[in-house]
Amino acid sequence: MKFAKTYPLSEIATIIDCKYVGDASFPVQGMNEIHVVTAGDIVFVDHPKYYDKALESAATIVLINKEVDCPDGKALLISDDPFRDFNKLTQYFAPFSAFAKAESNPPIIGEGTIVQPNAFLGNDVVVGKNCIIHSNVSINDRCIIGDNVIIHSGTVLGADAFYYKRRPEGYDKLLSNGRVVIDDHVEIGGLCTIDRGVSGDTTIGYGSKIDNQVHIGHDTVLGKHVLVASQTGISGCVVIEDEVKIWGQVGIRSDIRLGKGCEIMAQSGVSKDVQPGDVLFGSPASNAKVKFRELAAIRMLPNFIKNK
């Protein structure tokens, strides 16, 4: 998330009541998770395992729970609980607001677009031209919909990310301030859920088609002309390149990449990167031809045992 204006480091430190290392006027332009940070962003880190990754990332402000040497050209915010203070910043810069606010921030709806009864469009939503939004669709705050998009009944765009930190008293939720961005000529089936990014965008690329009852997690990026069949679950922070085909009841773990033109056959579980053009099947998914030979061999085992 980029802020509406640039803030000095000292002001950000005041908002979350923490110490800072660096020039008081050091520019702060936004806040993001580590996989989408750019210069001017705050990134948070609260585990020694990830200190170096955060300090060496593109982020120029690191919200951290230990006083460390500050890299050149960067600044630090020293907090006893970076997770909590990242949430404080979200509450400050992108607080949840009731729909009554939409009177002053109404959705923008393009020419030729049809919005059926009982569809909900939240604050600062933008819908392009010649779209069809069917009944009982929920498009939550700040979502962006392109031209010639069809969204079928019961679909929810922009629900919060499934992202929690375990505390002694239970699970603490990381607040979401990102968006869902749908490109032109996309069709989304009924009863789908597409979560907004924690701080960036969950993106559905040009011409992609999504079947009914599909879930897409936070900050995931679908490329152009991707097909996703029914009952597929895609975790957060997945990158799916152009022209990928994902068939029914596939499960995909977080933080992996599916290469251009690959195909994931039905009921597969994908737990690692997939190379462009590969065809995978099974759980854990592997090369479909190899997997089918393995299954054929397994079916022959009773005969081997019987003939011993």
Describe the structure.
This protein is of the alpha/beta class and 308 residues long. The chain has two domains: 2-93, Udp-n-acetylmuramoylalanyl-d-glutamate--2,6- Diaminopimelate Ligase, Chain: A, domain 1, CATH 3.40.1390; 100-290, Hexapeptide repeat proteins (UDP N-Acetylglucosamine Acyltransferase, domain 1). The chain has helices spanning 9-16, 51-55, 82-93, 288-306, and strands spanning 2-8, 19-21, 27-31, 41-45, 61-64, 75-78, 108-109, 114-115, 120-121, 126-127, 132-133, 138-139, 144-145, 150-151, 156-159, 164-167, 170-173, 179-182, 187-188, 193-195, 201-204, 209-210, 215-216, 221-222, 227-228, 233-234, 239-240, 245-246, 251-252, 257-258, 263-264, 269-270, 279-281, 286-287. The mean pLDDT is 94.
Main traits of this protein?
308 residues; alpha/beta; UDP N-Acetylglucosamine Acyltransferase, domain 1; globular; ten-stranded mixed β-sheet; 31% strand; Udp-n-acetylmuramoylalanyl-d-glutamate--2,6- Diaminopimelate Ligase, Chain: A, domain 1
User: How many runs of DSSP E, i.e. beta strands?
Assistant: 34
Helix content: 10-25%
Structural class: alpha/beta
Mean pLDDT across all amino acids: 94
Q: In percent terms, what proportion of residues is strand? A: 25-35%
**CATH class value of the largest domain:** Mainly Beta
CATH superfamily of the largest domain: Hexapeptide repeat proteins
The biggest beta sheet is recorded as: 10 strands, mixed
Radius of gyration: 22 Å
Low-confidence stretches: none
Which second-level CATH architecture of the largest domain applies?
3 Solenoid
**Spatial strand order of the main sheet:** 8-11-14-19-22-25-28-31-33-34
Give the tally of structural domains.
2
